[in-house]
Write a structure and sequence with these properties.
Elements lengths: L2 H9 L15 E15 L2 E12 L6 E4 L9 E9 L6 E10 L4 E10 L10 E9 L2 E2 L16 E5 L4 E4 L9 E6 L15 E3 L4 E4 L8 E12 L4 E4 L3 E4 L6 E12 L13 E3 L7 E6 L4 E8 L4 E8 L5 E6 L2 E6 L9 E12 L2 E4 L3 E8 L50 H14 L29
Parallel strand pairs: 9-17, 19-26
Antiparallel strand pairs: 1-2, 2-5, 3-4, 4-5, 6-7, 8-15, 10-13, 11-14, 12-13, 14-17, 15-16, 18-20, 20-23, 21-24, 22-23, 24-25, 24-26
Length: about 450
């Protein structure tokens, strides 16, 4: 059986349409990511891809292994990521590893029905993936696709303005651009939602609309990576890519649900509003294999009740509710998740008189190192974004680390009159807010001019 036929069989879903909110049998595509950093088997380079599939019901989990690649693949896994508590949807993660068979691969994936009642009159789904597997002249490695994720259904009241800034990260540092699908191989029919506009920088904008436009819409996006300089791709064949040429493309599909108007669009009234220590949108976190990372998320709304946290990310992320409007996402990466950056996106869902409301969509990126020794969580440098505000408790027997910090302070008063202990406490509080453990100990090694009456003499500057 050819690989193309095998992929088609893997992706075929039920063609029986049904009601999304009651007895949905259909599935719809989610996101797709591929990597080319797997070790070789029998002299063949290996390709890893991950995609998410969305449906009403979870299909459990399974794993299948073919160690010598004689069956066409090395590993396949299917695991549950998350599900909505009332049963509206479930997201599954599928990972597939197999030998690289060609320099590039076009895959046309055909599925079953989308959900019923889509306002942009789409009945079934299909999509196209382009994988570029030649080595790049700028990095010396094979190309990897842009990465993102999203929950299956995103809600917005019909009378509220909202921007969805999608998290698009490229491991090769390429420029990632987004567009709606526009050919029969990418979607059929394509019919972009009339209530949404999409910028090339991957921001979806929703403007207030009439109640006649309320309901679900299929969102079918293609993300493409463009080199920032002209590069050569070379393996058994060679090609040149300029800054105007897409290297690969991967789909992103979800449902936008336009709900009835809300009495107030102000965050914190009915719609949940995030509070500290929730990480900023596009924050970067870093952890190591076997090291537990805990992400604290908090939100409030005066006229609705925080019901649950909904997320999309690695399948082994664990969600907990720790208090009213307070949640945690806890993740201990496995060895097979090392050396990669993993997107995580989430919303808070609230309830008021049976009506569901979503917060804004927030996404962050977690880089996973290969070390197994626990270390403090620090931000990666993969994206030029804000500094995270997430902390986690180190495991038992965590070794101590000593770090030096050079600071320049300015003050309207004589520094010798400042209470040194109070100053150190203020510095510590600022560092803890930026992600360092709360039990860190600070010592002032030297200062010029002197800070506080008890500062030790020194000629160095700190």
């Amino acid at each position: 059986m050819s690989l193309s036929v095998l992929l088609l069989l893997l992706m075929v879903c039920s063609t029986q349409a049904s009601d999304f909110f009651s007895q949905q049998q259909a599935s719809f595509f989610g996101t797709f990511t591929y990597y080319t950093k797997e070790p070789k088997v029998n002299g063949s380079d290996l390709l890893r891809w991950r995609y998410t599939r969305n449906s009403r019901n979870c299909d459990g989990s399974y794993s299948s292994v073919c160690p010598d690649s004689s069956c066409g693949y090395v590993l396949s896994e299917l695991n549950k990521v998350d599900s909505e508590s009332s049963g509206e949807w479930c997201q599954m993660e599928y990972i597939y590893i197999f030998p690289i068979l060609s320099d590039d691969m076009h895959q046309y994936w055909l599925g079953g029905d989308w959900i019923n009642g889509l306002r942009n009159t789409i009945r079934s789904w299909n999509t196209e993936v382009l994988l570029e597997l030649r080595k790049r002249s700028d990095t010396g490695n094979e190309n990897s696709s842009p990465q993102t994720t999203i929950i299956p259904v995103v809600r917005v009241p019909s009378n509220c303005q909202r921007d969805f800034s999608l998290l698009m990260f490229d491991p090769d540092g390429d420029d990632v651009k987004c567009r709606f699908g526009n050919t029969s191989s990418e979607c059929d029919p394509c019919n972009p939602p009339s209530v949404l506009s999409l910028s090339p920088s991957c921001t979806l904008s929703f403007s207030p609309t009439n109640s006649s436009n309320e309901g679900p819409y299929a969102v079918q996006i293609l993300m493409e990576d463009f080199p920032r300089q002209t590069i050569t791709l070379n393996k058994t064949t060679q090609t040149i890519k300029t800054t105007n040429d897409a290297i690969s493309k991967a789909p992103l599909q979800f449902v936008l649900l336009v709900d009835p108007a809300v009495p107030s669009c102000t965050g914190g009234d009915f719609l949940p509003r995030f509070l500290p220590p929730t990480p900023d949108h596009r924050a970067q976190l870093y952890t190591n294999v076997s090291q537990t990372l805990q992400i604290s998320i908090s939100a409030e709304a005066k006229n609705s009740t925080m019901s649950e946290l909904l997320f999309s990310g690695p399948y082994n992320v664990i969600r907990n509710k720790t208090g009213p409007g307070e949640f945690t996402l806890t993740w201990t990466p496995l060895q097979k998740q090392a050396g990669q950056n993993h997107p995580i996106c989430f919303v808070i869902q609230a309830l008021s008189n049976g009506t569901k409301y979503h917060s804004e969509l927030r996404c962050l990126l977690v880089g996973v190192g290969i070390k197994t020794t626990p270390a403090a969580t620090t931000p990666t440098t993969s994206l030029p974004t804000t500094t995270p505000k997430t902390t986690h408790s180190p495991p038992a027997n965590t070794p101590a680390y000593v770090a030096g910090l050079s600071m320049k302070l300015s003050s309207l008063v004589d520094l010798s009159h400042i209470d040194r202990d109070a100053l150190l406490n203020q510095i510590k509080e600022a560092l803890v807010k930026q992600g360092l453990p709360a039990d860190i100990t600070l010592q002032l090694r030297s200062s010029e001019p002197q800070i506080g009456a008890t500062a030790a003499p020194s000629t160095d500057t700190t």
